[in-house]
Structure formats: C-alpha cells, structure tokens
Amino acid sequence: MKFNLGLGSRAWRVSWERVAAAAAGPRAGGGALGGRTQRVSSPRPGRRGSRLSRALPLCLSSGGGGARALPDCAGPSPGHPGARQLAGPRAMEQTYGEVNQLGGVFVNGRPLPNAIRLRIVELAQLGIRPCDISRQLRVSHGCVSKILARYNETGSILPGAIGGSKPRVTTPNVVKHIRDYKQGDPGIFAWEIRDRLLADGVCDKYNVPSVSSISRILRNKIGSLAQPGPYEASKQPPSQPTLPYNHIYQYPYPTPVSPTGTKMGSHPGVPGTAGHVSIPRSWPSAHSVSNILGIRTFMEQTGALAGSEGTTYSPKMEDWAGVNRPTFPATPTVNGLEKPALEADIKYTQSASTLSAVGGFLPACAYPPSNQHGVYSAPGGGYLAPGPPWPPAQGPPLAPPGAGVTVHGGELAAAMTFKHPSREGSLPARAPRPRTPSVAYTDCPSRPRPPRGTWRERQADPGAQVFAAAPASGARRTRGQAARGGTPRQPPGPALPLASLNFGF
DNA sequence: TTCGTTACGGTTGAA
DNA sequence: AGTTCAACCGTAACG
C-alpha cells in the first residue's frame, strides 16, 4: 500500500506535521515535499479523503500479485541525509509518491511523465487554459506553467537532464596549449591565452576556460608541467574535440527496444512497457487524437489505471533495462535520435503507437534527452486524473466552444504548433547558467535567465540551439508586473505545415 | 480567479 | 564505496 488513504495523503499529512514543525521552530520539520515550510497550508483532510481515494486508484494495489520489495530503491538515495528515511510500514506507504493538493500523484524530485507533459501541451494547444489543465490533470499550475513556457520556448515537452557534472574545460589538451602559449610568450596574459584558445579553435565559447582558470593553470600546472607528464603523454587524445563529451551525450536515449524491434529486457514488473520515453517521430499520426490524448484509455485497457492488480514494477528505475544513461545501446539514430528509442513512453503501459504523434513535441530540440523520463515508480495511470473520465464524454467543460476533445489527426495537426528551427532563428550564444547561490534563480523558464543552453544541451545537440528561443524579449519584469496576469501570454510558436518539417526519415 | 514567480525539499549522476 | 556538487524536478504559496 502506497498511500494511507485513511489518514489522507502524505502531502496533507505533512502539512499538518508542518504545523508542529513551525511551532518547533523554523525549518524544524523539513518536510519532504516541496514548498515553503514556513508556511502552513490549510489542509482540509475531510475533503481530501474522498478525493484521494479517487486520485489513487492504482497506487493502492497492496501488492497483490506484484508485491514488490520497496525498500532498497525507493525514494531517497542512500547517502542523502535529507532524504526521506522512514522505517517500518509507514515507509512503505510514503516511499513512492506523493499527492498534491489537486489529488495528483507526483514523485518529488522527478519529472512528470512525458505522457502528462504531452497532454499539458496538447490541451493548451486546444485552447484550454493552464488553470484548467492544472485542475484536469491534477498537476500544479506552476508546473503547467513551466512546462508550457518551456514548450513555447524550446518546442520540447521533455524535462531537462538531471544530474551529472559539468565536464572539465581544462582538458589536457587545453593545458597543453596554454603551456605552449606561455612558453611561446612568457608575458602573455591569461585573457590573451583565452582569446587564443578561441581563435585557434582549441576551445569554443562554451568550454573555454575562464581567465581565472587559466591563471590557476598557469600558477599550478604550467610550472610543474614544463615536461609533459605521463598522464598527458599517454592520455592525450589524438585530436581533442572541442566538445569532448559530445559522443557521450549526443541523444543518449537508451532504448528498451532493439533495432529489430525486439523488446530488450524489460523489467519483469513492467509488462511490455518500454523503459524509456521513446516515441516514434512519425507525424502526422494515423491515430486519432482521442487516442493520443486518451492515455486514460490505454491505461484502462491495460488495466494500469484500474489499480494494477498484479501489475508489478520495479520501484527502482535503475532496475529497468534501458533507462539508464550509461547503458546507451548503440542504435541507429535519426537526427541524433535513436529511432527505436522513440517508440513508447516510459513506464506507461501503452502500445507504442498510442503516442505516436508525440514526436512533434520531442526534440530534436534544445533539451537533451536524458534517462530520466518517466522514472516514476508507479504506472503512469497514477498520474492521470482519476474520477470523471477524461476526456469527458460530453461537452468538456475545459474545451473551448466548439472544440471537442476528440479531434482527429488532421485537426490536431492544425491545432498544435510546432516550432521549426528555421522559424526560430538562430540563438545567441548561450552562456552556461550560473548557479550562484546568492542569485535567486528560478527554474521557471519565463523568468529572464541565461538561456537554457547548458553544456549538456550542447553536448546533446549543438545544432539544436536553434530550437531554443532567445530569452523572452529581454524585458525583465518585476514580480509585481508579472503577477496579476498583466503579462501577455507568450504566443504559441508558429504553426508549421507538417510537411515542412524535416524529421530526416 | 488566474498565472508568473520563487523557496523549498527532493533526485540524479559525474567528479 | 561514499561524498560532494551542480544540474534538474514539481509543489506550494505569494503577490
């Protein structure tokens, strides 16, 4: 049993715990959920119960045929003191998912499943307001806003890549060149070295060391490296690539499907489910949007939404074949995307064709794929709004007048926009996003911020920069301006005839 | 009521 | 093997 419905959701229970925590002192509670701990929400547990019971149909399977071992993998990583570490039955309840105020299920720290992300974008394209999308999908409006903003910005629904480290820029080759420059001109300044590294193509603007780094190299390394050490002699690559990690991060979609279409070892608990977001980029799809949108439908068909009795899955993503970045199989790629990898959404029990139209939302874009899509422990249905069927059978309250939810492929194609690189214009140089703690950065893409061209994005697809828009009009708005809805909505990207899109296959 | 913003606790993966 | 760090995440709440 994942959630203790009798007590209400974990999220709400935590809110109550925060009351005591707040009384005990600031941040004493350290709630596991996001949100500000110093504020205490006003939970209404009485109402929550019934809502949750609708919200969590599939999370309630108490093992059944799939009684799975929860402990070792769930939730917090070992070694993270701040992570949840609960013992006993309660840990079993609280390890895998939480319920937000809307009754939606989420996994803290993990991206929403792509199917949900896709649906957010699709609904928005159909003219449904974000607030309605938020309610319908039971995703926080901040998240909806973020996903839509990102989609408008990049054309991608995918989350960013999580984890990892920025590769060192002071590669042996760079050090060697610095040394050469210094030896050639002992009076050279660090900034001159930097310019020369750029001019000589040793580095590009993304990975050129800072002046301070060069100074440090000059101070710490060059002196002691007058003679090339064994490391450099032996490990110096024949031709140092400008972006040395390109080969690693170039669309590292792991794939659960072999190039022949054969399922690769999916976890025994994931019946026929691809282990990764991987959706064919065939577009337009022959499938109706009701199928595309009808995630619930396929969930129901597969039983995932109905409680998943007997549906077992590994709570640990790492246990699922093909979802981990380091295990990228060498598969043919199309536009840098592994074609077989684009065939199903992770963890969603669905046919590969169900979301075949999703390709239009997936990059080739500024966002590098990662291994993180759909790492939810629960089958995707857990994230879908339970309760009234979705889409509603009749005049959906969320649908714009005259816009039925059941839209067929052609209509969807018209309804959805797709940002084409050539229409987006080229990007200005992207500076790596600073992470200075003193800078109150936000994840919200709508805030003016350095473009999302992180090193990883560039490694994934340097040419994809064109997908990312320039920082939104450069107009930094004050918080007061941004609030109250005074900001005009960013228009959707230009809709392109699908025929004009070159997917390369 | 809507929505942009942001603090927060969390996960992840390379170093 | 365990830790650190810097990416990212979604939620909750403010304004």
TrEMBL record:
Query: What is the superkingdom listed in this entry's lineage?
Result: Eukaryota
- CDD domains, sorted: PAX
Gene Ontology process terms (BP): bone morphogenesis; CD4-positive, alpha-beta T cell differentiation; CD8-positive, alpha-beta T cell differentiation; cell population proliferation; parathyroid gland development; sclerotome development; somitogenesis; thymus development
Tell me, in one coarse class, where this protein mainly resides.
nucleus
Keywords for this protein: Developmental protein, DNA-binding, Nucleus, Paired box, Transcription, Transcription regulation
Which Pfam families does this UniProt record tie to the protein?
PAX (PF00292)
User: Which GO terms of the cellular component aspect does the record hold?
Assistant: nucleus
Is DNA-binding set as a keyword in this record?
yes
- Name the InterPro entries for this protein: Homeodomain-like_sf (IPR009057), PAIRED_DNA-bd_dom (IPR043182), Paired_dom (IPR001523), PAX_fam (IPR043565), WH-like_DNA-bd_sf (IPR036388)
Compositionally biased residues, Low complexity: 472-486
Paired domain residues: 95-221
In this entry, which stretches build a coiled coil?
A: none
| Keyword Transcription regulation appears in the UniProt entry | yes
- The signal sequence is none
Q: Which is an annotated GO molecular function term of this record?
A: RNA polymerase II cis-regulatory region sequence-specific DNA binding
Name its cellular compartments: Nucleus
Q: Where is this region: Disordered?
A: 26-52, 421-505
- PROSITE patterns the UniProt entry points to: PAIRED_1, PAIRED_2
Function (record text):
Transcription factor required for normal development of thymus, parathyroid glands, ultimobranchial bodies, teeth, skeletal elements of skull and larynx as well as distal limbs.
What subunit structure does UniProt give?
Interacts with KDM5B.
- UniProt-recorded name of the protein: Paired box protein Pax-9
Write down the species: Aotus nancymaae
The opening ranks of the lineage are: Eukaryota, Metazoa, Chordata, Craniata, Vertebrata
